[in-house]
Amino acid sequence: TFDIEDLFKNLYNSFLPRAREKGLELAADLSPNLPQLRGDQVRLSQVITNLIHNAIKFTDSGYVRFSVKELERTSNGIIKLEFAVSDTGIGISEDQQSNVFEIFTQVRSLVKRQDGGTGLGLAISRELVRLFGGELTLNSKLGEGSVFSFQIALPYSATVQNPVMTGKILTPALSKSSKVLV
Ligand code: ATP
Ligand code: MG
Predict the structure, then answer these.
(1) What is the residue with the minimal CA distance to atom 29 of ligand 1?
(2) CA trace torsion 93, 106, 8, 25 (10° rounding)
(3) Please, what is the angle between helix 121-131 and helix 41-57, to 10°?
């Protein structure tokens, strides 16, 4: 299991210097009381990292915000979450919006780019989100900013019940001996 709040804190702290350098506001938003999640924390973190990295790279004023919102929690231990990374950056024109997910595709922009990259980040991120059963989507307006978001369902740890109170947790050795007693 992993703690999404810890993950967000780590991401926030690791991107803060970069955001500060560019004079950008960095914000992280989480739904309250999220449970411990089960799943591939490393790959989830890789997706969000790619998106935040892009957001900061292609934004020169305003903010970069990343969030996780609880959409639904089912009784069988699954939680549906929406992750989003928004920025007030250069944006992506409508006709380029489907292209940016293609491998090696970079939009030529008027803004001079200091750090080039290879055009792999979004292609990889989209595939990783697919492996989580979701889809990475983009909402953007040229000159105004972008929002990358995806919804995924993950198992979460149920609240651990006190075994003394329920009396239902027996080790194999114990259950054997209780059989003898019966
Ligand atoms: P790499 O991620 O491999 O270092 P990259 O960032 O250029 O390189 P992608 O992350 O795949 O590659 O992004 C592809 C292109 O999509 C970018 O080059 C840029 O033109 C555009 N893009 C991605 N994110 C944003 C964003 N937040 N705002 C504006 N344009 C973006
Ligand atoms: Mg990138």
Answers:
(1) 91
(2) -60
(3) 150
Is residue 25 pLDDT above 90, yes or no? Answer: yes
Q: How far is the CA of 57 from the centre of ligand 1 (A)?
A: 8
Model-level ipTM above the cut of 0.85? yes
Q: Which residues line ligand 1 (CB under 6 A)?
A: 50, 54-55, 58, 87, 89-92, 100, 105-107, 117-123, 146
% residues pLDDT > 90 (the chain): 74
pTM of the model: 0.86
* Type of residue found at 172: P
pLDDT of residue 106: 78
